Amino acid sequence: MHSYDGKSCTFHFNAGLTGDIIIQSKDGKNEIRVDAKDILKLVAFEYVLGNKIRELEQMDYKDLLK
Q: Model's pTM, two decimal places?
């Protein structure tokens, strides 16, 4: 299992982001388990897709046709 320390919590996850991700408060008193697929879908659709749409909206038509 791998870990990532964020500002407010620590994420514990399997390689390849399979199974559950355990999100634990910094003090270790609280934790929640979330299916990794749910986190991946959230990031893909809300963050990555939103950024790509903004990039496309700002492109010149000539760049878009390349």
A: 0.72
Residue with tokens 């700002």: 58
Residue 37, CA distances (Å) to 7, 21, 47, 66 in order: 22, 9, 15, 34
Amino acid of residue 36: A
The answer to whether the CB of 20 falls within 8 A of the CB of 34 is yes
Q: What's the pLDDT tens digit per position in 46-55?
A: 999 999 999 9
Determine the Cα–Cα distance for residues 18 and 25; give it in Å rounded to an integer: 21
CA 6 → CA 3, 24, 34, distances in Å?
10, 10, 16
